[in-house]
Amino acid sequence: MDEEEIEKAVVAYLKKKGFKQTELAFQEEQQLNKNTNSQLDPDITKKILSFSEFETGPERYQEEYSKLRSWAYSSLDLYKHELLRVLYPVFIHCFMELVARGHIQEARAFFDSYREDHEMMHLRDLQKLEGVLSPSHLKEMEFAHSIRLSKVNIKMCQYSYDLLLQYLHKTESITMLGIINERINFQVSPGQPGSISDDAEVVTLVGSGPDASLLNQKEIHWGVRKRSYQ
């Protein structure tokens, strides 16, 4: 996702929500960067996430993911299977972001609401991650820690990628935009979408090295998951 697209999304979001002073400061900073041929702030995605967190808190993850999910499932059949590939890594990182911010009840409710969507292809990952019950587990659990340090690789055709960008900008899904930009590495190819039979291989949560392979084979448990969040 290029810098200009991110900048437009952030400015549109700030303007819509009435953060006038923040909008002006952001635009001044970006103009200065352009005048000095500087690159966009490397922490821009963290700024995006902080803007959305400031406004509504944890419920924004639920709202934006639900809308993204509905949009992907209602997309044209030709491109649907590629767009659906985005949902699993976004789901995982929404869950872990909520945990990292201390919203444990909201994280568990979010996880339980959508885990069924992903059980067929990612059951072992989900069984590991359902044991994440506190921010400390994100560091102590090797599998979760590795995911948060890596970018997800997703293959899709150019048109599917363009559709995704258009959706994110049109709906001003600033939280999803931040997660996708920070956590996903798109491998975009020209031409028609790839085969749906390739889906098991085109989404990789961790890298392809030997350490990642071992991580995917490990069974890590943090005790029985609590059913009550009281």
Question: Could you give the topology of this structure?
Answer:
Blueprint (H helix, E strand, L loop, with lengths): L2 H15 L2 H16 L8 H13 L2 H15 L3 H8 L2 H14 L3 H26 L5 H6 L1 H8 L2 E6 H13 L3 H10 E6 L9 H4 E2 L5 H8 L13
Parallel strand pairs: 1-2
Antiparallel strand pairs: 1-3
Protein name: Transcription initiation factor TFIID subunit 5-like
InterPro entries: LisH, TFIID_NTD2, TFIID_NTD2_sf
Subcellular location: Nucleus
Structure notes:
- This protein has two domains: 3-29; 60-195, TFIID subunit TAF5, NTD2 domain (Serine Threonine Protein Phosphatase 5, Tetratricopeptide repeat, Alpha Horseshoe).
- It contains 13 helices and three strands; from the N terminus they run H-H-H-H-H-H-H-H-H-E-H-H-E-H-E-H.
- The relative contact order is 0.15.
- The model is unreliable at 36-42 and 207-230 (pLDDT under 50).
- The protein is mainly alpha-helical and 230 residues long.
- It has a three-stranded mixed beta sheet.
- One of its GO terms (cellular component) is transcription factor TFIID complex.
- It is found in: Nucleus.
- One of its GO terms (molecular function) is RNA polymerase II general transcription initiation factor activity.
State the gist of this model:
The protein has helices spanning about 5-15, 20-35, 45-55, 60-75, 75-85, 85-100, 105-130, 135-140, 140-150, 160-170, 175-185, 200, 210-215; strands at about 150-155, 185-190, 205.
**What is the number of strand segments?**
3
**N-to-C SSE series?**
HHHHHHHHHEHHEHEH
Task: Assess the beta-strand content as a share of residues.
Answer: 5-15%
Distance between the termini: 40 Å
Would you tell me the overall average pLDDT? 75
The Rg value, from CA coordinates, equals 18 Å
Low-confidence stretches: 36-42, 207-230
Strand order of the largest sheet: 2-1-3
Task: Report the total helices.
Answer: 13
- Taken from the alpha-carbon principal axes, the silhouette is globular
The overall number of domains is: 2
Task: Give the class-level CATH name of the largest domain.
Answer: Mainly Alpha
Structural class: mainly alpha
Name of the CATH superfamily of the largest domain:
TFIID subunit TAF5, NTD2 domain
User: What is the helical fraction, as a range of percent?
Assistant: 55-70%
CATH arch. level architecture of the largest domain? Alpha Horseshoe
The biggest beta sheet is recorded as: 3 strands, mixed
**CATH topology label of the largest domain:** Serine Threonine Protein Phosphatase 5, Tetratricopeptide repeat
